[in-house]
Every structure is written in structure tokens, then in C-alpha cells.
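Materials and Methods. Structural model of LysR family transcriptional regulator. The 294-residue sequence of LysR family transcriptional regulator from Halostreptopolyspora alba was retrieved and submitted for structure prediction as follows.
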Amino acid sequence: MDVTIHHLRCFLAVARELHFGRAAAELHLSPSSLSEQIRTLERRVSRPLFQRTSRAVELTEYGAELMPLAARAVEATDEVLLWAHGEIAAPVIRVGLMVSNPEFSRIMAAAAARIPNVRWRIRQLGFVDCYNALEAGTVDCAFAAEISPASHPQLESRALWDEGCVLVTSERHRLADRQSVCLADLADETFVSVEDEEVSARWFSAVNVDGPPPRLLSLARSFEEILELCAAGVGVNIAGESARETYARSGLRFIPIVDAPRATTYLYLRAGRRPTPLERFVQVCLDVASGAPH
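The predicted structure was written out as C-alpha cells:
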């Protein structure tokens, strides 16, 4: 069996995107060439790695098992290439991010200053892949926003900051000119949400008013996709108030919800012993979030 690093890079790209077209664009390959690489890899490991239909691509159990192994193999190969070019292989910290936030930018600026001999890799994971990537070992930590308490007991979590919530609407929406709204105003709304129904239900159940469950359109994989659908008038969304600063654009309104629970951003980590640079990064996160001097 001859499995190459190129096979593993192709596999990881498809595993992250769960879409052959997007993965092929990332790798600068044609979709047909990428498909052939994956078929070759599956033949050589004698296991199916993806379930493919005309509508979706999903990892099989074997594919999920391979993800952390492939990630380590690719990272080790990159370290060898750095060594071969005479470069000192600095430690790598792979940071997963659910949505952008000004506080995250402050943390990364402090970390780059306080831990200079680290190569930083930031992965925009969106809502669907955030926890899976951490569990699979493709990132070392992940920043994720929750309205409910930390939701993954198999992972360690550190609460970093919280913020109020806003209603995201089209500028043409019936509530677009309001200075603020309350949860009762949203009883008849349709909420654009993510494809993962468990993630959607957890987020929106926390802001549900008395009455029937909220109507959810589980259409998106990322916050950018949610914003585009809200701007088009497909539905509305509930987000942390920092979205007004980070994602402001024409066609959208961000309206404070005066009685919504606060959204908390957690730093999630795999349980167990961690490398010293990652422990130092955790401390930087806690210091910046608490306002401690650095």
C-alpha cells in the first residue's frame, strides 16, 4: 500500500469542505482529478472514506478515524520540509474560529506579541465544523459562541467573554427601523440557521418565547451564508452584538434584543495534557478576556 502525502492533503481538503468542488478549488485541482485521488486513496487503504450522493458528501466512520492521523502526517511532513530547507521548525498552534469577533483579534495580537516563536494557523470553521474539527484533531483549540452553557462535556471549555444579542434582518424587514426589539416581537419570524439541526436547536431554544418552537430554515454552513440569506429577505437571525461591528454591510440591520440571554464565547480544548505553547496561549486568552495587563 503506497499512500502519499498528496493523497492525504486531498483527503483533508474534502473532509473539511464536504464538497468536492470547493476542495478542488482550494487545492488548485479539477474536481475530476480530485475525485480520482480520493478513489485511489480509498483503494489503497481498502476502506470507504466518504459517502457520496448527488446532494451531499459525508465522512464514513473510517474517514472520521483517518482525519486526525492524516492531519498529523501532513503536519509532520511540513516540518521535515522546513528542516530540509534549513529552517527551525517552530511550534504550530492551529486555532479554529466559529465567527470573527473584535475580541478574538485582540487575543491574537497579544498572543503574537507574547508567544513570538509560534507559527499561527487560523481556520475559519463556521458553525457546523467547529467542534468536529477539534475532536478530529485538525485544530488545537476553537473559539465558539453559545447562548446556552458550554455544550460539549467531552471537551474542556473556558468562558472568555459575553455580549448582548441582536436581530439580523434585511433593511426591508418590518422591524428594520426599530431601535430595539424584544423576544415577543419575534414570535412569527422565520430564522435562517445552519445545516446542523442540533446546533440550530440549541442556539434558538435559548431565545424562544413561550409558545411553539421557532421556525428554522437550516440552510447555511457559515455566518457569511446566513447574512446573505438575511439580506435577501429569506429570514432573520440572532447573533452576538459584535456582529454589528464585524459584519456591517449595506442591506442589513442589526437591532438589539433587550431581553435576550447573553451570548458567551468559549475557548474549547481537547481534554488531557497540552504542549507548553498551547497552555501559554490559553493563559493569554484568559488574560485578555479578563482585562489583565499583559
